[in-house]
Amino acid sequence: MGDSSVRVYAYRYVILIVFMAVIAANQLLWISFAPITNAAAKFYGVSDLAIGLLSMIFMIVFIAASIPASWVIDTYGIRVGVGIGAVLTGVFGLLRGLLAADYTWVLVAQIGIAVGQPFGLNAITKIAGRWFPLRERATAAGMGSLAIYLGIFIGLALTPFLVLRASIPTMLLIYGVVSLLIGVVFLALVRERPPTPVGPEERSLVLNGFKRLFHQREFIMLLALFFIGLGAFNAVTTWIEEIVRPRGFSIDQAGLVGGLMVLGGIVGAIVIPPLSDRMHRRIPFIILALAGAIPGLLGVTFATSYTLLLASAFVLGTFLLSSGPLGFQYAAEITYPVPEGTSNGLLLLAGQVSGIAFIIGMDALKSPSSGSMTTSLLILTGLLVVSLVLATRLREADLITDA
User: Fold this and answer.
1) pTM to 2 decimals?
2) For residue 340, what are the domain limits?
3) Residue 400 or residue 362, greater confidence
4) Residue 205 has what pLDDT?
């Protein structure tokens, strides 16, 4: 059945919205300590790195949980797979809020929330492939990625506001209650599939999919791009306060810098994937995204003017983060019939592994006298240049033949 003749269902937007809410809630809980690193370290009586661990633990857990989560999503479907993520996010998010005064319990709760993360993130292209026709799938994947950025934006912008006007425990409790409510709504409204297929859906078995992926030249190159790009994003957002504090910027300003970076990603995710769908091309937009991210990261590295810093953060987010949904959909197309959860999960896994390495490396390379992270940011910029060169070697899905 051709893409132009399939029947589509308005309920796909309900599915997408509740899915996006689960993703946003999980990312909000992940990033909630990044803009208040110094304040949280003083509150709990621990080091900055111990607070960084509350974010980094998501990447550590993702390494262990990603492949099992992809298997569950591809074997049992959206309702079970994403439902597990929604329940873990809601239950442990609330537990974190109730036990917010104790660092050990907060860390335990973070681990529980982190286990839920891949059950949502790895399903982005599964949602798009099951509920949306081919002509809308990059757009739907873009909206799934938009939810990631929206949750991070809320966390970066709202957390300092709540902490300065209330307290860290109050902020964590509010986030926990909201996350639990979102989980309940998701379970009430989610449906596994539309009454009739909206496009090609047959996929190979998960284990066979793994074998196929690593015989695919473009997918291996795409893994390298996610290793650098997503790792850089994870590291910069985790250390956002530490990056700007040596230049005299406050906790509120750090939160707005991080928030504007993610707001740029929201704009990019809304604008660029639909253009890619309209032109039926992925590679030019991936190249554009990486090229635009480089000057943005340089601005975040060197800007001493707050206005220039905000503008640089916005540019960095607009381009770098828009490459995510394009990469997810490109991977689904070039690796067909590998299950979407498998390809999606491996790309995210690459970014989590590098995120851990980059976070630790940035802390290790921090200037002992000023706390500046300029050296590590320049290294990340160089890696983005390498990514840009690598992206020019990619081929469109319709030009690829199996190896």
Assistant:
1) 0.74
2) 11-399
3) 362
4) 46
